[in-house]
Amino acid sequence: MTENSKITSIVVTDFEENEIYLMAKYKGKNLLLIIYRNQCLGCSGRAIPLAYVLQKEFKDLQVISIHTNFGNTKTTKEEIHSIFTIDELPFPIYIDEKHQVYDQFNSEGTPQWLIINHEGILFRSLFGSQEGAQIRLKYALEALMNFKSNL
């Protein structure tokens, strides 16, 4: 999936293994999706906390985390919760059981950030959690919000 492409479907599961169709569930919203893994230190140490900050900063943005599994690994709700210091999850977290979403967006690794505008268009896809990636992500979000406000 390339930037400026219309996304018709992203299918994940919730913790009860129910299929969730993200594009239908969050239709009409600007989305920031983070594809991550608990085992990725850059994800749990930098990217997830950054997603929390960005959710507070950009009020018209729905942050969604997608934990991707590789091989035969299964991740439990408890394992997902274990990286958070608060009892309640700060944003929705879904599971990408066989890394299908990861593959759908040709992810370079984890964390992979996907910015999808309110029309379902992939606005930006960015990889990483270090300072350079964080700056590019913030600039892209500012551009998206500025573009929407000028419509």
Automatic annotation (TrEMBL):
It holds the Pfam family AhpC-TSA. Gene3D superfamilies: Glutaredoxin. It comes from the Bacteria. Residues 10-122 form the Alkyl hydroperoxide reductase subunit C/ Thiol specific antioxidant domain. One of its GO terms (molecular function) is antioxidant activity. InterPro entries: AhpC/TSA, Thioredoxin-like_sf, Thioredoxin_ResA/DsbE_sf. PANTHER family: PROTEIN DIPZ, THIOL:DISULFIDE INTERCHANGE PROTEIN DSBE. This is Peroxiredoxin. The lineage of its organism: Bacteria, Pseudomonadati, Bacteroidota, Flavobacteriia, Flavobacteriales.
